[in-house]
Automatic annotation (TrEMBL):
UniProt superkingdom: Eukaryota
GO CC entries: membrane
Record Pfam families: Abhydrolase_1
Record key words, sorted: Hydrolase
Residue ranges constituting the AB hydrolase-1 domain according to the UniProt record: 98-339
Gene that this polypeptide is encoded by: EPHX3
Naturally occurring in which organism (per UniProt): Physeter macrocephalus (Sperm whale)
A molecular function GO annotation: epoxide hydrolase activity
GO biological process: epoxide metabolic process
Protein name per Swiss-Prot or TrEMBL: Epoxide hydrolase 3
Lineage: Eukaryota, Metazoa, Chordata, Craniata, Vertebrata
Residue stretches spanning the membrane: none
Protein family per UniProt: Belongs to the AB hydrolase superfamily. Epoxide hydrolase family.
């Protein structure tokens, strides 16, 4: 068929897609402005109630002692083949079994996996990375350096760079979103997955369009689409919004000690420490709309019944995309979003049972 005819036939579809994306971006930035007003009021309230802290975050000069706890593993760096960036990771149990690779969420770092590093190093080579932009890993400032494709290439480079041909991928929140995508596009590199508190991007998109309550739960995502303002708001009153997120008595991490809180804040308090992590969110809507994708990697899914950020209905939506028999899903009663830190014993029990046949 002549190229001119093909172009003419596709023109209506392309125009419709452009109009849909333009409409989507208008909604996103409208929601971003509303979210900015709300979070601006919250940040200002924190400043007025704690005037001595001022309007900026206090840079932490010394990392807290818990970040160098020798029982968690050895601190290493890996230069990525695709990008040349250096990623920081903590490793333990090399030679004890298959690679178990941990991917953290926001606002966290490798330290969020401290319980799992201790638990599984006897039978696995456990590796918890600081994703690009976080902690001691390289942090390019350009938004285009944080596309999903580049972040998936990082995971591939870590697995191959550590000398493995496949891994058991354990992921939470943003790390889980990357893990879902990685299992679709690099299935040969993932033997099993344990996913906590996150849905594949296409599932989240379709579910949110039918359940407006999920949009309200994810209101912070719209704020993070804006340049520079989110960094300013999150750092005001010495990072009080982040502190509240991590320590809130209902929505935060139970029993998080001041030293452990500082383990997360230390990286964000460094110059430009928030820009890399927020650039993940600034790339979220660039691929809209997404096509439904079939999920086939054997996966353990753990979800908190009281998760304040993601509705429980997403679990059924995820299950509907799976090849039968490949998903084992558990909803933990009374549990929130931060399962690896709030309920490590329950998570470990499910993981050992899920992985038992690999160890026999």
């Amino acid at each position: 068929m002549p190229e001119l005819v093909v172009t003419a036939l596709l023109a209506p579809s392309r125009l419709t897609l452009k109009l849909l994306r333009a409409f989507m971006w208008s909604l996103v930035f409208s929601a971003a402005l509303v979210a900015a007003a709300v979070y601006g009021c919250i940040a200002l309230t924190h400043v007025l109630s704690r005037p001595r802290r001022g309007c900026c975050g206090r840079p932490r000069r010394t990392p807290p002692a818990c970040l160098s706890d020798p029982t968690l593993g050895e601190h290493c760096f890996l230069t990525l083949r695709s990008s040349g960036l250096r990623l920081h990771y903590v490793s333990a149990g090399r030679g004890n079994g298959p690679l178990m690779l941990f991917l953290h969420g926001f606002p966290e770092n490798w330290f969020s996996w401290r319980y799992q590093l201790r638990e599984f190093q006897s039978r696995f080579h456990v590796v918890a990375v600081d994703l690009r932009g976080y902690g001691s890993s390289d942090a390019p400032r350009d938004v285009d350096c944080y596309t999903i494709d580049l972040l998936m290439a990082d995971i591939q480079d870590v697995i191959l760079g550590l000398g493995y041909s496949k891994c058991i991928l354990v992921a939470h929140d943003w790390g889980a979103l990357l893990a879902w995508n990685f299992s679709i596009y690099y299935p040969s590199l993932v033997e099993r997955m344990a996913v906590v508190s996150a849905a594949p991007m296409s599932v989240y998109q379709d579910y949110s369009l039918c359940h407006m309550g999920q949009f309200f739960r994810s209101n912070y995502m719209f704020l993070f689409q804006l340049p520079w303002l989110p960094e300013k708001l999150l750092s005001m009153s010495d990072f009080q919004i982040l502190k509240t997120t991590l320590t809130h008595h209902k929505r935060g991490i139970p029993h998080l000690t001041p030293n452990e809180l500082e383990a997360f804040l230390y990286g964000f308090s460094q110059p430009g420490g928030l820009t890399g992590p927020l650039n993940y969110y600034r790339n979220l809507f660039r691929t809209f709309p997404l096509e439904p994708q079939e999920l086939a990697t054997p996966t353990l899914l753990l979800w908190g019944e009281k998760d304040p950020y993601f509705e429980q209905g997403l679990v059924a939506a995820i299950s509907s995309r799976f090849v039968p028999g490949r998903l084992e899903a558990h909803i933990l009663p009374g549990v929130g979003h931060w399962i690896p830190q709030s309920n490590p014993e329950e998570m470990h029990q499910y993981m050992w049972a899920f992985l038992q046949d690999l160890l026999d």
